[in-house]
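step=encode ok
step=design start
structure_in=
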């Protein structure tokens, strides 16, 4: 078996550059305003390691994406009607045209709502083409926020299962000058927002966003009370102390991967 066939590659799109890392080397390529076109510069890692074969995990900075919690209306039937509803909601909220964006829905979501995301179609097509031309197996393609939350679920960080299954909770990720905050209630996502943030402003922005959501969320029939826990990465927990809504606590979830 070729040494490359079992190689694991990680391709990350930051706001300003692609980062490609293998077992023995890595490379960074600026993207400017054309991340899809910049992928062509990743033909090799330096002058010696061809980028080919193996497994490829892709992670995209939230600055390139749009997030939305979709609430399913009563009466929707089948995947086609759900896809149409997702498309309409992204058009209404983010001005996103489904012809130019790839819309993804959390397939594991249960209940009346689901976390969804949108990525530029040209970007996703470029990643797929990049992997195919190099005989790579694309094992994952996720945004920063979703990838961070999934690492909590799979145990990469010390987080109790009870924290992720609590009636009311939130996860906040601050990276690359952006804070993405999602909140769940009654076992499903209910709010998500991704915002630019200046240095040092992540904690107060998180508090304001969470406090703005709580009255409407907790007032809905069958939803839990106002006390919960926010899990954070890249946010100074000390600055959250004493500023969170009444009954809320914060816990840092280790270093950002």
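sequence_out=
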């Amino acid at each position: 078996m070729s040494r490359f066939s079992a190689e694991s590659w990680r391709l990350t799109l930051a706001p300003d550059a692609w980062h490609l890392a293998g077992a023995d080397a890595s490379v960074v390529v600026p993207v400017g305003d054309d991340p899809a076109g910049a992928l062509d510069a990743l033909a090799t890692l330096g002058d010696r390691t061809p980028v080919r074969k193996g497994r490829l995990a892709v992670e995209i900075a939230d600055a390139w994406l749009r997030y939305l919690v979709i609430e399913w209306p009563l009466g929707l039937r089948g995947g086609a009607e759900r896809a149409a509803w997702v498309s309409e909601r992204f058009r209404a909220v983010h001005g996103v045209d489904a012809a130019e964006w790839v819309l993804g829905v959390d397939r594991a979501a249960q209940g009346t709502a689901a976390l969804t995301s949108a990525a530029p179609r040209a970007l996703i097509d470029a990643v797929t083409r990049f992997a195919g031309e190099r005989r790579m197996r694309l094992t994952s393609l996720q945004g920063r926020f979703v990838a961070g939350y999934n690492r909590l679920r799979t145990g990469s960080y010390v987080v109790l299962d009870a924290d992720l299954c609590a009636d009311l909770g939130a996860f906040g990720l601050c990276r690359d000058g952006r804070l993405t905050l999602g909140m769940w209630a009654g076992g499903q996502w209910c709010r998500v927002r991704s915002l630019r943030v200046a240095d040092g402003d992540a904690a107060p922005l998180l508090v304001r966003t969470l406090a703005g959501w709580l009255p409407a969320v907790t007032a809905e029939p069958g939803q839990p009370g106002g006390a919960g826990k926010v899990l954070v990465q890249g946010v100074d927990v000390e600055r959250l102390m004493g500023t969170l809504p009444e009954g809320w606590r914060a816990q840092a979830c280790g270093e950002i991967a």
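step=design ok
step=annotate ok -> Residues 89 and 95 are 9 Å apart (CA to CA).
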